[in-house]
Amino acid sequence: MKPTLLHGDCLKVLPSLEAESQDLVVTSPPYNLGIAYRSFDDTAKREDFLDWCRQWAAELKRVLHPQGSFFLNVGAAPSNPLFPHQVLLALTEELFVLQNTFHWIKSITVQTRSGESISAGHFKPINSKRYVNDCHEYVFHLTKNGNVPLDRRGAGVPYQDKSNISRWGHTGGQDLRCRGNAWFIPYETIQSRDKERPHPATFPVALVEQCIRIHGQGEDTRLLDPFLGIGTSAVAAHRMNLNAFTGIELDEHYLAVARERLETLI
Ligand SMILES: C[S@@+](CC[C@H](N)C(=O)[O-])C[C@H]1O[C@@H](n2cnc3c(N)ncnc32)[C@H](O)[C@@H]1O
C-alpha cells in the first residue's frame, strides 16, 4: 500500500477527493476540551465548534460510498460529559444515521465467578471528590442510511460455552460470536511518551483495526482519516494490508511523525 498523506486543513483538502471514493472513515477530531495541540486551537465556543463539525462531516458524507461506514471516536472530560452527545446530535440532525454505538473501554476490572478480581488496561487516576475515573470513550458508527451490513463476527470472540455452537443455528458451526459493543482496547505500553507517542490525544492501532474488521471489506477497503494526528490509522491500514489509505493532518510536525512511523513499517 502506498498511503496518501496530505498536509492541510481537511475542510480545504476534502473537496479535492472524489465523491463516494471512500469505503471507511475512522477518525478522532479535536475534542474542544482545550487540549494543547501544536497547531489547532481547541478552545472554540461550543456552538462554533459544532458548526465546524457539521462542515467537515458534510464533506465526509460526500466522499463516503453509500455502503460506507464512518466510525467517529470522541471522548469527554468528567467536567464536560455532554460533549460526545452534542457532536453526535450535530452530525445526525441532517447528515448521518447512528447505526451503532461502541464503547472503547480503556481500563476495566472484572470479578470472575470464582471471586477473583482481574484488572486490565491503563488506569489514569484523577484527583476529584465529584467525578469518578473516566475509563471509556465513544466510537459512534455513522452511516448514510442506517442499513449498512457489517461483518459482525469479523471482530468476533470465541463462545465461552461451546455447546452454543451446535445449539444455535446462526453460528453456522463456527466458534465465533459477535463481540458486542463494548471493546476493551488498552493503550500500547510505551517507555517514552515524547519519543513513542508525541501527541496529546491518540487512539490505539487496535481500535482502528477492529473498525476495519467489522466493516468487513478486507483488503479492498479504502480508508480515510481526515484528522490523522501521528498516523495511527495509517499504521492500522498497513497492518491490515489495505490497498488504499488517505490521511489529512493540519500540523506539519504530527504529519512528519506519521510519515516516520510508516517508514519504519515499510
Ligand atoms: C484527536 S487528534 C487525532 C489523533 C490521531 N487519531 C492519532 O492517533 O494520532 C486530532 C488531530 O486533528 C488535527 N486537526 C485539527 N484541525 C484539523 C483540520 N482542520 N484539518 C486536519 N487536521 C486537523 C490536530 O492537529 C490533531 O492532530
Describe the protein in words.
Helix content is 28%, strand content 23%. The strands form 2 sheets. The chain has an 8-stranded mixed β-sheet, sandwiched between helices. A two-stranded antiparallel sheet has the order 5-6. The model has no long low-confidence stretch (mean pLDDT 91). It is of the alpha/beta class. The relative contact order is 0.20. The longest helix has 18 residues. It has a single domain, classed as Rossmann fold, CATH 3.40.50.150. Bound molecules: S-adenosylmethionine (SAM). Pfam families: N6_N4_Mtase. Keywords: DNA-binding, Methyltransferase, Restriction system, S-adenosyl-L-methionine, Transferase. GO terms for molecular function: DNA binding; N-methyltransferase activity; site-specific DNA-methyltransferase (cytosine-N4-specific) activity. InterPro entries: DNA_methylase_N4/N6, MeTrfase_CN4_CS, RM_Methyltransferase, SAM-dependent_MTases_sf.
Quick recap of the structure?
With 266 residues, the protein is an alpha/beta fold.
Helix/strand layout:
Layout: E1 4-7, H1 10-13, E2 22-27, H2 46-63, E3 64-74, H3 83-92, E4 97-105, E5 107-111, E6 117-121, E7 136-143, H4 163-167, E8 182-184, H5 193-196, H6 205-215, E9 222-225, H7 232-239, E10 244-249, H8 252-265
Bound molecules: S-adenosylmethionine (SAM).
EC number: 2.1.1.-
Family: Belongs to the N(4)/N(6)-methyltransferase family. N(4) subfamily.
GO molecular function, one term: DNA binding
